[in-house]
Amino acid sequence: MRKSCPDLDSEDFQLIQVFLDTETTGIDVSAGHRIIELGATVVRDGMHTNEEFHQLLNPEREIDPEASEVHGITIEMLANEPRFRDVADRFIDFIRGREVFMHNATFDVRFIDAEFQHANRAERMADLCRITDTMTLAKQIHKSGQVSLDALCSKYAVDRTDRDKHGALLDSQLLAEVYLRMLESKNSLLGELEESEEVYEEPRFLKIQRQNPLVIHATDAELAAHEEYMRKLAAET
Hints:
This protein has 237 residues and is α/β, with parallel strands linked by helices.
């Protein structure tokens, strides 16, 4: 999923990239599930930075037990945390005018847009930033095989020993590193292909020098056929 965003400086996209993840009370936003954690990290000029956004949120509803099994967050842990509407301005300032990468972006965007709606805000993700789905990119590079964040961490040897549970900030950091390594691998492969194509496109001429030039004489049958062809050609003209 990739959407264009109006009035954005394209040069900034090449310099600053935001990797974002969410944790939620459940998987179905249409059933009223909410965001309970936002985590984002910034990559600048292809290098990790210390700039990040991290916030636990009070969803004002229960958390599905299955969801708690995944991220380890309980409603008791969030009782004193702010609501999304309380941090919306800070979050908007963090992502506005930037390219935001999410793994399975459709999921995260639906939840964030729903939070804007709950907060009676007019903003939507597609209006604030450029959205890039790293899962879509991974599927383009890896035509077969798993493209989950865990699978990609294994493929690109990204250390995830601290990830016993899902966490928005940690997952955003892992995603940033996976993306950088995936991009490096892709560029390396393209470079090898370009070099290979240049080799095959290079003309090959066989330079053979003979001391006695090779002369091929026509046979009697070939000479007779040639004379017959010339007579027919003269008759037609």
